[in-house]
Structure formats: C-alpha cells, structure tokens
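Query structure, 127 tokens:
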C-alpha cells in the first residue's frame, strides 16, 4: 500500500508556472505507474498526464501537451508536474494517483485503473 500527498498548488496569474509534487510513502514507489488528474466541481475527473514506473514513458492530455511535464524521482519517492503557460481553464484540484504495475513500461490514462489517490492540491489561475 502507498500513501500519496500532493503539494505545490496555489494562485497564479495566467501565463505563469507552478510545480506540483506528490510524495509517496513506503519503499516500493518504483513499482507504481503514476498519474496526474484534475477535477472541478460538477465535472468528471480529467486525465492530465501519466508516467511509467521507470519514468521512461509518458503521456499527456491534448489540453496540456507542450505546457506540462510529468517526471518522477524514484530515489526520493516523488512525482512531479511542472506546469507552464498556465491558463484560467487549468484551474482545478490536482490529484496524483498510483497503480501497481509489474511491467515497468506502461502508463495508464483512465482513473479507474488507479489503486491509490492523494487528497489533491488546489491550483487557481487568474486571468
């Protein structure tokens, strides 16, 4: 089992940047594929980005491609999301998620595929 804790959210002007972190408990972080999702009131949870266990494979939603970068540091059990050129429509609660994965090479883009979730961190982008 793994526990996830997001940080780094806040209020930023359009065009600005934020870096989110997701700290994972335990010693088996490198056995989990990871993902970032976001959610706004009244809407379904939306996929943002995903990364394989090793970090070698990544995938992005079209809405964030070229602006966001997902990465991980397995040595310190942490997942990151670098967000640049932020837009007001990026405003949401951002959640990290973990999925047990034994292949090492896959990423996952559907929320129901993930086993564990953090509580989320609020990102607000003002126009």
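Result returned for the query:
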């Amino acid at each position: 089992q793994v526990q996830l804790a997001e940080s780094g959210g806040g209020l930023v002007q359009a065009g600005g940047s934020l870096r989110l972190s997701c700290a994972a408990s335990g010693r088996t972080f490198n056995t989990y594929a990871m993902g970032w999702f976001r959610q706004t009131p009244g809407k379904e949870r939306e996929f943002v980005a995903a990364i394989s266990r090793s970090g070698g494979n990544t995938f992005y939603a079209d809405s964030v491609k070229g602006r966001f970068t997902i990465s991980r540091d397995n040595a310190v059990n942490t997942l990151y999301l670098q967000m640049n050129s932020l837009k007001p429509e990026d405003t949401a609660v951002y959640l990290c998620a973990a999925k047990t994965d034994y292949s090492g090479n896959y990423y996952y883009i559907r929320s129901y595929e993930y086993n564990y979730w953090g509580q989320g961190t609020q990102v607000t982008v003002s126009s």
